[in-house]
Amino acid sequence: MIRMLRRAKPRAVSFLYLLPSLAGVLTFFIVPFAQIIRYSLVDNPISNTYVGFDNFKRLFANAAFQRAASNTIRFSAIAMPLAVVLSLLLAMVLEAKIPGKSKFRTMFLSPMMVPVASIVLIWQVLFDYNGVLNNVFARFGVLPIDWFKSDYSHLIVVALFLWKNLGYNMILFMAALGNIPKALVEAASVDGASSFRRFWQIKFRFLSPTFLFVTILSLINSFKVFREVYLLTGDYPYEDLYLLQHFMNNTFKSLDYQKLSAAALIMAVVMALIIGILFIVDGRLGKDVES
Amino acid sequence: MRNIRFGGRWLKIALATLWCGVFAVVFLLPTVLTFANSFMTETEITANYGAVFQKNETGGKQFISEQVNLKLIPDKVTFSQYATTLLKSPDYLLKFWNSAILVLPIVLFQVAIAAFAAYSFMRTRGKLKEILLFVFIFVMLMPYQVTLVPNYLVADSLNILGTRWSIILPGIFAPFSVFILTKAMRRIPKSLIEAAKLDGAGEWRVFTQVCLPMCKGALFSVAILVFIDYWNMVEQVLIMMPEPDLQPLSVFLSQINTGEIGLAFAVATIYMVPAILLFLYGEEYLVEGITYSGGLKG
């Protein structure tokens, strides 16, 4: 009996340690999420009549949601691959034993520490109608435009996103590159493998878990670019920059819980699907390395 | 043949260094410019950037150059913008305080609660635990556009909407730190814990005297990462706390008057300082923390 108690004890104690965190996550994230599922299926929280997928149909028919979703998808589709590829390039260049490697690392990482609010003044000076970029372009005879209200606005925001996020991704790739067994790469080059083949057939496979993680991270961070857009252009940006977070803010203001819940649920499902697919792809690529 | 290869190698390194140099300038310049501009007089700032920030004013009293003039070195170095911020416009200091009073409790308690949870995830690894950890990771991966809705509903039913608690409480329980600290704790050699147990140490002593000291680096790096994220908060504030009185500088800074651009640069610099200092003193920890965050498995 005593022996059983002693065996059970670590388990019980260990759950005790988990309790505060678990209670918080359940209270603030999981339980209300169940509420969201319920809200998304009823006509309003008071009468509680089940309406099936009406809220979702209403959401998808909403012009503001369509614009916000397509702008966000377009932004992420451009920003995510660039963030992965460019940070990998930076990491590989730094790995090439250049002088002052750690100084460069510090400099590349520094933008992630700078609060967006502190840096938007400079972005305004650069991209305003009377700004620096137009001055430079004027010398080549290009007519000035207001960059944040132009068809290029999303590309400017991509640039701001890359500025802030490349450093973090680069660190992840540097760590992964450092973990590739040197002997394997050397053996391949002795066997006469070109540097191109060495990359795709050896390094790429070892990097694949990091690829997965950096891709997911870039996707999540690409949703945070709302900060830049909001601080630069306010509640009502140029229509190309109207993002899902703008849509959520406006829906919060109108207290339309059904629409909010439907939107949050759709986004959660889409995120889960994307992350699931990435995991499956990663499982295929990384198979040879782990065995 | 060998010489050519040798020369090619040098060329490669030179090119790589040049490439990094160009990138380094691009990465550093905006921050350095903000810093440098905070030491300019209001007259100089207006002359340089008036074309951007004061389009509608045509008083003609001030000199505004038609073209924006991006300058690194001030004509006259002055601390007047800082003096104004610190002595004459308490509004910005108040907003700085708003930031601190939101962020510090979040960092402290998120890391503390997560350390307990991580210890638990490390000590026993049953099926239930693995499912819970998966749920934590899933919540961590959800963007604000998803998590703010449940957070808002709870804040509403707890009647804390519009107060600091509506931001602090969800921040404290965000599972990011749990994830990283669990990975750090699972790297502690099992034999160390077993040895402590054999010496008669209870769970509390193993936790406080073996695991926490072993994870000091990880704890510090998580704290830095959480700090940066919340020092930069925007989304939560707009939804939970729309009244400007309680807002942190990360939101309020953009509402600064166009006539006070010089001041804005000084406030922007003051707001960067805590983050930059943490970076300069804790870069190794930061890098360690980022490395820990890599990879979702084990």
Can you describe what's shown?
The complex is a heterodimer of chains A (291) and B (298). With 291 residues, chain A is mainly alpha-helical. Chain A has a single domain, classed as MetI-like (MetI-like fold), CATH 1.10.3720. In chain A, 77% of the residues lie in helices and 0% in strands. Chain A is built from twelve helices and no strands. Chain A has helices spanning 2-39, 54-61, 63-95, 101-109, 116-127, 132-138, 153-178, 182-190, 195-223, 226-233, 244-253, 257-290. Chain B is mainly α. Chain B folds into two domains: 2-85, no CATH class; 87-293, MetI-like fold (Orthogonal Bundle), CATH 1.10.3720.10. In chain B, helix 3 (80-88) crosses helix 4 (90-123) and helix 4 (90-123) packs across helix 8 (176-185). The two termini of chain B are 48 Å apart. Mean pLDDT of chain B is 84; it is low at 56-61. Chains A and B meet through helix 1, helix 3, helix 4, helix 5 and helix 7 of A and helix 1, helix 2, helix 4, helix 5 and helix 6 of B.
> Structural class of the secondary elements of chain B?
mainly alpha
Task: State the share of residues found in helices of chain A, binned by percent.
Answer: over 70%
Q: Main sheet of chain A? A: none
Radius of gyration of chain A: 24 Å
CATH architecture of chain A: Orthogonal Bundle
The ordered H/E elements of chain B are: HHHHHHHHHHHHHH
> What characterizes the major β-sheet of chain B?
none
Q: Please indicate the percent range of residues of chain A in DSSP E strands (runs of 2 or more).
A: under 5%
Secondary structure class of chain A reads mainly alpha
**Under CATH, the topology of chain A is which?**
MetI-like fold
- CATH fourth-tier homologous superfamily of chain A: MetI-like
CATH-derived topology of the largest domain in chain B: MetI-like fold
CATH superfamily placement of the largest domain in chain B: MetI-like
